[in-house]
Amino acid sequence: MGPGVYDGRTGSTSPFEQTVYLLAEAGRTVERSLAARLAHRGLTSTHHALLSTLARHGPHGRHDLVARVTAPAPEVDRALDDLLSARLLQSMVVHVGGRQEVLTITPSGQAALDVLHTDASSVQEDLLAPLTKGQRVELNSLLRRVCAAAARGAEQHARPGPGWVLTDGQRRRWVLRESAPEATARPGKAADAGGRGTARARSHPSTPC
């Protein structure tokens, strides 16, 4: 985001400078910076997620932990093996409701997580350098409210409503869906690539058919 792109005193009439886009751009910058710090430590975001989950929520069965972390299962398994090998995690076998492996974070793992928190604070300082202390506190409070509202409304907004969409299939078209797509298409009613089915559609006037 170059200098002069967005002036918070006057706002902006550009649709590309809506708050949602600015948040996304800031988020991408933070992700790149955090990933670089993790790579410098020989870690990945999956290692970080595993350490954080066990530190915050306590011991987990291996299968439950793999399912909880939002990364492909083989990647999570490799990361777990890395952390166990480095003794940042420890494993024990318990026989409660069957045999299962339970993982916990070790003191060394907690110390490693503290280092990562320090790295995150450094990234935060760089990102928020233009803001005063009061503005930083206010921003944190506002983002907490936004994130809480987003979490509550995630499922509600997961399915799109009526509106313009690009259809699937070989012959793709920009069409107006006049009703929300159904979660599961009934036999014989599935919409085809041309937009037919339970949702009525019409082509955009400027789009050749």
Low-confidence runs of at least 5 consecutive residues: 1-6, 184-199, 205-209
Distance between the termini: 38 Å
**Total strands:** 6
Report the structural category: alpha+beta
- In DSSP terms, counting alpha (H) and pi (I) runs of 4 or more, how many helices? 6
- Name the strands of the widest sheet in spatial order: 1-3-2
Largest sheet: 3 strands, antiparallel
Query: Could you give the order of the helices and strands?
Result: HHEHHEEHHEEE
Radius of gyration: 24 Å
What percent strand?
Answer: 5-15%
Mean pLDDT: 83
Shape: extended
Share of helix, binned:
40-55%
Q: Can you describe this structure in just a few lines?
A:
This protein has 6 helices and 6 strands, in the order ααβααββααβββ.
Report on this model:
The structure is a single chain. This protein has 209 residues and is an alpha+beta fold. It is built from 6 helices and 6 strands. The strands form 2 sheets. It has a 3-stranded antiparallel sheet with strand order 1-3-2. A hairpin with a 3-residue loop joins β2 and β3. It starts with 18 loop residues before the first helix and ends in a 6-residue tail after the last strand.
